[in-house]
Structures are given as C-alpha cells and as structure tokens.
Specification:
Oligomer: single chain
Largest sheet: 8 strands, parallel
Distance between the termini: 171 Å
Strand content: 5-15%
Helix content: 55-70%
C-alpha cells in the first residue's frame, strides 16, 4: 500500500511536472501564435497601405496624364494665339511703315510748301517793290508832263486866243491847257493823294488858276484899252477896276469869266504836294517796308494799375522776379488791390502800405460790396489822401441793391474797379434777357445823373476787368474764332460798352475758358489770341480808355503764361504798328489820369 501510494505519488509528481512543462510549452506557443497573429495583422495593414498607395499612385498617374493632355492642348492654343499675334504685329508694322511713309511724304510736302510760300513771299515783295517804284515813277512823270503840258497848253491857248479873238481865245486856251492833264491828273491824284494833301493842293491849284486867268484877263483888257492909260488893271473878289476900259466891255468879260467858272465839265485840277507821291515817313526805304520790330516800341514809363496784394507775398520779391528788373526801372507807380480785408482793418493796412511795399503807390483800391444796403455815410478810410483811395468790387448779377451800391460809389466821385466774374460776353440768357443786357442796364441806371448832380463835380470813372480779353480757349484756331458767333457778338457788345464815355477797360491776364488740351507755351498763339481782341476794343475805345494791369481776376483759374504779361501785351501792341504815344497811353498816361486824381 505504501509502495503503491508512493508510486502513485511519484506518478502524480511526474504528471504535474509534465503538465507544468506542457502548460509552459502551451504558453510559449500561444505567445508565438499571438506574435504571428500580430505580424500577420501588421503585414495585412502594410499590404492595405501599399494597396492604398498603389491606388493613389494610379489615380495620380491618371490625373497627371489628364494634366499633361490639358497642358498639351493649352500649349497648342497658346501657339495659335502667338501665331495670330505675330500676324497682327506684322500687319501693324506694315501699317506703321505706311504711316511713316505718309508722314515723311507730308513733311516733305510741307517743306516744299513752306519753301514755295517763302519764294512766293519773296517774289511778292519784289513785285510790290517794283510796282511801288513804277507807281512812283509814273506819278512823277505824270506830274512833270502834266505841269509841262499845262504851261504849254496855256501858252498855246493864250497865243491862239489873241489871234482868234478874246472870247474864243480865252475859252479854247483854258480848255486846251487843262482838258487832257486835268482828267488824268485828277483821277490819278484822287487815288494816290492823301486827304489833307488833296484839299491843300486843290486850294492852291484853284488860286493859281485864278491868278493865271486874272493875269490873262488884265492883259486882254490892257490890249483893248486906251494905250495912254498906263495904270494897271486888276480884278478882285470884292471890287472890279477896269481903268479906262468901257463899263460894258468889262461887264461882258466878267460875265464870260463867271460863266466859264460855272460851266459843266471837269473841275480845276488840284495841285498835289510832293508828299502825296512819296512813301510814308515811318519806313526806312522807298519800298514801304514792314513795321518796326516789337523790341523797338517800349513805353517810356509803366503804371501797373491792377496789382493784388496777395499776389506779392514776401514784399515784392516775387513780383520783381516775374516782371523783370528792366520793367521795374520803368515802373512809375502801382495801383494796389486789397482783397478779403475786414473794413475795420483797412485804415491801418492802407497807412502801413508805403512802409511794407518799396514801390511808388499811385492809389489803393479798397473793397466794397454790391450786395446789401448802401452805407449812409462814407467810411472814414475813404477820407485818406496818402495814398489816394479808390473802390473795387466784384459783379456776378444785376440786382436793385447792386444798382444802389454802385450809384452810391459813383456819387462820391470815386473811381470804381469792377471785376466781372460772370461771362457777360457769352450767349447766356436768364429769364429771357442775356447777362450782358442785365449788366448794361446796371451801368445805365447807376451812371445816370441824379437830381442833385452838378457840372462842376469830377465825373467818376468805371474800370472793367476780366473782359479784355475775356476767358479764352487756346484749343480753337484763330481763324475759326474770327468766324465764331461769340466773337462777332463780343465785337458788338464792346462797341455798345464804348458808348458809356466814362467806362475804361483793364488789360489783365485772361482766365481759362474751358478745359485745355493745348500747350499754353506757344507765344505765337498767345499773341494771335490777344490781338484778336485788341482790334475791336481799339476800334471802339481807342488808346485813351485802355489801362494795363498785371494781376488776373479772381473769377477762375489763370493760365501759366510763356512770358510775363507785360511783355506779351507790349509785343502784341507793337506788332500792330502803333505809335509811341499810344503805347505810353496804355501803359502809363491813362492810369495816371484815372487814378492820379482819385483823391
């Protein structure tokens, strides 16, 4: 039993060891299986990832193929566009070449035209010189042979008259001596002779012919009278002395003489002076040369009658730089325009101006308004006399208040400057009437004398600005401007304004009329535009009612002038061939007369 139990116990221990070793082996196998399973799962995940990558690579390859196809199509389209642009470029280059050829041909044509014009102008001057010389020679020869024929005809007629009888000889001698030369000389002299020379020569010729006729008459009376009567016989306008000649014979001869003076036919030939057959003394030769250059006509003195104080900051340095030292040396005075200054500060400003501005001040224009009610008493600063005070205002529309205020200013004998800030020369109507009609009505009512007006009081003067010249546009050609209805209307309205005998015009820099595209630096265009308006103003106002000023109006944007306004105005007037006294009136004398006695 004990042996059996020990053997069983040994077998049990052996079985437990076997079971333990088997369990260990099972655990190892299970771990190995888990590791294998993990590796299988990892391999499966790796395969799945590789599959995904392959799928993505396949799709990417397909997308790349699509993109490549699209890129090839786009390249083909761009190549087609490049080919079209190259063909368009070639076409444009051919057009540019054509335009270049046309431009060159046009330039060659213009050069030939200028050369032809130059040759024609030279030929025209040559022909004009020849015609002038020929006309002068013809006039001289005609006058010489006319005088010779006149004397020969008179002598022949006188001799023939004595042979054939007193009455027949007198008539035939008179007609024979003057018939041919009288008609030709009178017709030619009437064309070429000047007015003063014509009347002077006519009077001299009439007196000379009367003297010749009276001498012949006295000789005839002496021949027919008593030889023993040695007293001279003369015929006068107020009395007739016939000596011993019979009264009836004397009366008969007086009747014949008077009848011959009343006969129909050509009148007595006027004796023209030599100046009628010579060129004007303003030239330098006998060929009627061109007028003197603009640099030769310079005013003896300058008065700037429109100089805004705001236009001269830092004293007068900028003004001196703009107008030039040579002009400043000729400046004899300025008229200062005070802008935007409260009335309380005007008196102190006016008193301090001579110390601030080192220019001779002719007058100071202080502002007043056309709006509101007119003041009952003139402000205290108007009583100042050093420097003299004038008034200036701006005009935009005609109102009853404007008429009352302008009348108040004129009643106090003050020169009034009006800066016209509306284009009254344009064809603009308000309520059926134009702006110009309203302005003219304002002037008419304001300048009409009141019931207490006296003839001894100094007549006030109105100076209008910003209408000479009016707002300009440089884009429009001058030839087109001359035919424009606005320019024709400007001429008519300037003539109408000139009927106001106390209205003067200021020549100030113009405003821009419209948006400009042309260059304002063309001096020739500027002179042409300015002379376009000088003509009608000069014809209407004359040189006695134009005043020079350098500052532009406040109504709009001024131009940037290629030269100073003084040089532009002076050269424009000088190129019109004006005399020295006219230039002096525009630049000095008129302003001195208008503003010098403003106090």
């Amino acid at each position: 039993m004990a042996l059996t139990s020990s053997q069983e116990e040994k077998q049990a221990h052996h079985l437990k060891s076997i079971l333990r070793s088997t369990g260990d082996r099972l655990d190892r196998e299970m771990r190995r299986a888990d590791r294998a399973l993990a590796r299988a799962e990892q391999a499966e995940a790796h395969v799945l990832e590789l599959t995904t990558r392959a799928t993505a690579a396949e799709s990417g390859k397909h997308y790349a193929e699509l993109e490549a196809t699209r890129a090839r199509d786009d390249i083909k389209y761009r190549q087609l566009q490049i080919e079209r642009l190259e063909s368009e470029n070639r076409r444009l280059q051919s057009q540019v070449s054509l335009l270049e050829r046309q431009k060159n041909e046009a330039e060659d044509s213009a050069t030939r035209a200028r050369e032809t014009a130059r040759q024609l102008q030279l030929e025209l001057r040559t022909v004009s010189a020849r015609e002038a010389s020929s006309d002068e020679t013809r006039h001289f020869g005609m006058r010489k042979w006319f005088n010779s024929g006149r004397m020969e005809g008179y002598d022949s007629g006188h001799a023939e008259g004595f042979e054939s009888g007193r009455e027949e000889g007198f008539d035939e001698g008179r007609e024979y001596g003057f018939s041919e030369g009288e008609e030709a000389g009178f017709a030619e002299g009437r064309k070429t002779g000047r007015k003063e020379g014509y009347y002077e020569g006519w009077e001299q010729g009439r007196k000379a012919e009367r003297d010749h006729a009276l001498q012949a008459f006295d000789q005839l009376l002496t021949a027919e009278g008593d030889p023993r009567d040695n007293e001279p016989t003369a015929l006068h306008l107020n009395s007739v002395h016939c000596g011993s000649y019979s009264y009836f014979s004397c009366r008969r001869w007086v009747t014949i003489l008077l009848a011959s003076g009343r006969r129909k036919g050509p009148r007595n030939l006027p004796k023209l002076p030599l100046s009628a057959f010579s060129p004007p003394n303003t030239g330098t030769s006998d060929t009627f040369p061109f007028p003197p250059t603009s640099s030769a006509v310079v005013p003896t003195g300058i008065i700037d009658a429109h100089l805004r104080i705001s236009a001269i900051p830092d004293g007068v340095n900028r003004y001196k730089g703009d107008i030039g030292q040579l002009v400043l040396e000729k400046t004899e005075g300025v008229v200062l325009i005070i802008e935007n200054q409260p009335s309380d500060d005007i008196a102190g400003l006016v008193q301090g101006l001579p110390q601030r501005i080192d220019l001779p001040i002719l007058s100071v224009s202080v502002p007043f308004s056309l709006d509101g009610t007119a003041p009952a008493e003139p402000p205290s600063y108007l009583a100042g006399t050093n420097p003299p005070i004038t008034l200036w205002t701006t005009y935009t529309s005609a109102t009853p208040e404007a008429i009352a205020n302008l009348s108040w200013a004129l009643e106090h004998g003050r020169t009034v400057d009006i800066d016209i800030q509306s284009d009254i020369m344009a064809s603009i109507t308000i309520g059926g009437s134009s702006l110009y009609d309203a302005f003219e009505d304002l002037l008419t009512k304001a300048t009409s004398p009141g019931p207490q007006a006296t003839g001894n009081k100094r007549k006030p003067i109105l100076c209008l600005g910003n209408i000479f010249p009016p707002p300009l546009s440089l884009d429009e050609p001058i030839v087109k401007s001359m035919k424009h209805p606005d320019y024709l209307q400007y001429q008519s309205r300037i003539s109408s304004l000139s009927l106001f005998e106390d209205v003067h015009l200021k020549i100030t820099p113009p405003m821009r009329g419209t948006s400009e595209t042309g260059s304002p630096d063309d001096l020739k265009v500027w002179k042409g535009k300015l002379k376009l308006y000088i003509g009608p103003v000069l014809e209407a106002f004359g040189f006695e009612r134009m005043i020079f000023g350098s500052s532009p109006s406040l109504a709009g944007e001024p131009f940037n002038l290629p030269v100073s306004w003084y040089d532009l105005v002076r050269e424009s007037f000088a190129e019109l061939g004006v005399e020295q006294d006219a230039i002096d009136n525009v630049f000095m004398n008129n302003a001195k007369r208008v503003y010098g006695g403003s106090s």
